[in-house]
Amino acid sequence: MKEFQSESTSDMKSAPGLVPEPITKTDFYFYRDLPELLKPLEELSWNYFWSWNPEGVELFRELDPALWEKCEQNPRLLLEQAGELRLWQKCGDAAYVQRLQQFAQKLNAYVAQTPQELGKMTAESPVAYFCAEYGVHNSLPTYSGGLGILSGDHLKSASDMNVPLVAVGLLYRYGYFRQRISHDGWQEEKYQDVFHSQLALTPVLDEKGERLAVMIHIRGHEVFAQAWLARIGRISLYLLDTNVQQNAEVDQLITGHLYGGSSETRIVQEKVLGIGGVRLLRKLGVSPSVFHLNEGHSAFLTLELAREFLDANPDAEFTDAVANVREQCVFTTHTPVAAGNDTFTTQDLRDCFDANFIASLKISESDFFAFGRVDPDNQGEPFGMTPLAIRMSRSANGVSEKHGEVSRELWLRMLPDGTQPSEVPITHITNGVHAPTWVAPVFQRLYEQRLGENWPELLRDQLTWDISIDSLTNEEIWNAHRKLKKLLIAFIRDRTQTKETGSRETINEHKDTRKLFSPDVLTVGFARRVAAYKRWNLLLTDVDRLLKMVDDKDRPVQFVFAGKAHPQDRGAKKILQDLMTINHDSNWQDRAVFIEDYDQEVARYLVQGVDVWMNVPRRPHEASGTSGMKAAMNGGLNFSILDGWWI
Ligand SMILES: *Cc1c(COP(=O)(O)O)cnc(C)c1O
To answer: What is the pLDDT of residues 434-450, one digit of tens each?
Structure first.
């Protein structure tokens, strides 16, 4: 209870308990004397490949199912904490040992393949993918929501398709917050120190075997960032981290919290990501054929590329540098409203970029500031990361057809008067999900049996898929769905059961969960970030009618909710609180639950087990959305507004 702060302060630096201890983490290795036959588990735990292969997940779970849940599906923690007795018991399980060996061979064969050559994109000149968050798996808490899940899925798909790609991001020491709802319905946040956990990250070393670090000029001095490597199948994900001893405490906190702190924290974080990220790739000897800016957070990387170009070409001008950088960069925008795009004041910029850096771009300070404005002449306009990214990229895209259209209108003002929206060079590529991550094992088995081992590949060809999917009978689909629905109900009961201490610590706990939910009742799932445009409150506009639906004798409905509100968004927290007030109705209590701490694990149970996935955004504010895709792949129905991907 104590670690929870009822409200987070806007400036994390002043929050008690969040100042880093003077320890800095140099690696996550620990020695565990695993029995010889179980040694492959060690190797498997260092590559997230296990996480999207049901056999891999099972191997860890089976080692000690209770401990697996306690460790929140973190294999490194599991291996650290597994009891000796349990290890030797599994060692005697010949079938287990055999499956372990087979899966270890599968991983080795998988990573041994050399990447495809796709035009200019080769192993030596890969795509460099930049994003501020990555939702690879819960045990790597470097994501908050949709953007992170998308980039995590992107890496896994690139791995499966064997696309030459390296990824760059940040390691946040306190990650994103863990959520809990107090008795008065108010969201409480807790930040956990990832350095106290076990992460599947290895330190990146230079050729002398020393810790590789990059330097970025921030706040008037050099700040160091060290790099960590996460293995996502065949893909390397590098995460920069300013938590090093050489840095002052306040600079150690630059990579402290994901989307936390003030705009000053954001701009310095984004400088580490963009500029530090390019310097890291150079030190690693990676020469990307293309830089992919996934959302504007990393757009400062284009300035570093311009600086490099001007450094190497003393006769060139800034406009030459822009032309050169544009050839190297592509940009994906994810935000359909102007206010959702990151902007910084002139003061933020001045504090973050010293005169030397700006001079190295061969432009004046005022031209530099103007370069990030929609209207360069409007001195009152802040510096936007999206205008910067659009100017510096050879191609830009939105994340669904509708969002492409909205983006063209949104950024039309950057082009000369009289330009038509259709002429704005922003296209669209609809977001997707990585099927093996989101399809439940029962459905994966069905797809394998009926469509073949390569079912995820068939997904890419509509005609083949349409023909193949018909080989599944309705009965098979229904039976698989029933199993998943029962699993979801068991999960709901488990998550909402009052703790053993007997005291109800949060509003969503039940003393007796046996009455909670029935597999024979239509189950609607609604889980997403609590943001005004997602319209959580739509359901509450007529509570009497809602309660009637829930209580209907012949055709009742039950609801499962989950979602986090941004710590600084009081309006969103109020929406959650309003939802919680219905809890006084006892029928509602049996038929509606809020699962706290929405994350990938919760999402998986929900999208796989509900009958109907509900989404009611205010059109056209849902740039794409992806959760409904996950439900569809598991036989669920979508009940949605014609917005984003769903159109
Ligand atoms: C899939 C997913 C999202 C994105 O889904 P939306 O449709 O944008 O809500 C967000 N958070 C989690 C945990 C997810 O799994």
So the answer is: 999 999 999 999 999 98
Gap between the Cα atoms of 164 and 5, Å rounded: 44
Q: Could you tell me if the CB of 627 is within 6 A of ligand 1?
A: yes
Ligand 1 pocket, 145 CB below 6 A? yes
- Phi–psi pair at 522, nearest 5 degrees: -55, 125
Query: Considering the entire predicted model, what is its pTM?
Result: 0.95
Eight-class DSSP state of 66: H
Which among 147, 335, 400, 528 is the best mutation to test ligand 1's pocket, defined by most ligand atoms within 8 Å of the CB? 528
pLDDT of residue 502: 67
Residue to mutate, 259, 626, 639, ligand 1, most ligand atoms under 8 Å from C-beta:
626
Q: What is the pLDDT of residues 280-316, one digit of tens each?
A: 999 999 999 999 999 999 999 999 999 999 999 999 9
What domains sit in the chain, N to C, each tagged with a CATH number?
Answer: 127-428 (3.40.50.2000), 435-646 (3.40.50.2000)
pLDDT at 7 over 70: no
CA 607 to chain centre: 17
How many Å apart are CA 251 and CA 264, to the nearest integer?
12
Residue of 149, 154, 599 to mutate, ligand 1, most atoms within 8 A of C-beta:
149
Please return the burial class of 254, using the count of CB atoms within 10 Å of its CB with bins 0-12, 13-18 and 19+: buried
Element (H, E) at 509: none
Q: Is the CB of 600 under 6 A from ligand 1?
A: yes
In ligand 1, which atom is closest to the CA atom of 628? 7
Contact at 8 Å (CB) between 626 and 641? no
Q: How far is CA 631 from CA 11, 80, 93, 643, in A?
A: 37, 35, 36, 17
Is omega for the bond preceding 620 within 30 degrees of 0, making it cis? yes
Question: Which DSSP state fits 345?
Answer: -
Has residue 414 got a pLDDT over 80?
yes
Q: Which residue's CA lies nearest to atom 8 of ligand 1?
A: 625
- Identify the CA nearest to 137 among candidates 600, 595, 598: 600
| Ligand 1 nearest atom to the CA of residue 602, by list position | 13
- Which of 215, 221, 261 has the alpha carbon at shortest distance from 240? 215
Q: What are phi and psi of 563, to 5 degrees?
A: 160, 150
Looking at the chain, the number of H-run helices and the number of E-run strands are 27, 19
Three-class SS of 380-414: CCCEEHHHHHHHCCCEEEECCHHHHHHHHHHCHHH
Does residue 605 line the site of ligand 1, with CB under 6 A? Answer: no
Q: Which residues have CB under 8 Å from 110's CB, separation 6+?
A: 49, 233, 234
**DSSP 3-state of 574:** helix
Ligand 1 contacts CB of residue 393 (under 6 A): no
